Amino acid sequence: MYPHCFLTLTLMITLLIPLATASATTNRYPGAWMPVNTSDPVVVEKGKWAVLEYNKKVTNKLVFQRVVSGETIYISGIFYGLVVAATNESLPNPPENYHAGVWAKFFEPLKLRTFYKGN
Ligand SMILES: *[C@@H]1O[C@H](CO)[C@@H](O)[C@H](O)[C@H]1NC(C)=O
Ligand SMILES: *[C@@H]1O[C@H](CO)[C@@H](O)[C@H](O)[C@H]1NC(C)=O
Questions:
Q1: Engineered SS bond to 47: which of 17, 84, 90, 119, CB 3.0-4.6 Å?
Q2: Integer angstrom CA distances of residue 2 from 15, 39, 110
Q3: Which key words tag this protein in UniProt (predicted)?
Q4: Does 31-117 carry CATH code 3.40.640.10?
């Protein structure tokens, strides 16, 4: 990491803490789960990524359909707990729900923490 990255990180943290406190009235503060907007492109992208990441480990791939619901919480970045509808390419069945935990830590690649089938 270059020195200016550390500066940016420090700056972001210093800015984020008061910002988060100031907007506590709208429930946007660290340590609280907030519902996601399932149409938000940023959220949809996380859902798609979770399915692609999961597909790296399986033979019969899943095909992303949409984000059904989800919540986020601030933990060294943003953790997305999403319910994603996906079809199994090897089956003619309608989409089924999968739970995906995607962690978008500051300045780190996305991490898929959990992925399992369930409603
Ligand atoms: C959800 O996100 C979509 C796409 O960005 C936007 O058009 C819509 O207004 C948002 N809905 C709410 C309730 O914020
Ligand atoms: C897709 O369906 C096949 C056949 O039932 C199953 O073996 C496979 O595990 C499924 N794939 C995923 C990713 O769940």
A1: 84
A2: 20, 35, 21
A3: Protease inhibitor, Signal, Thiol protease inhibitor
A4: no
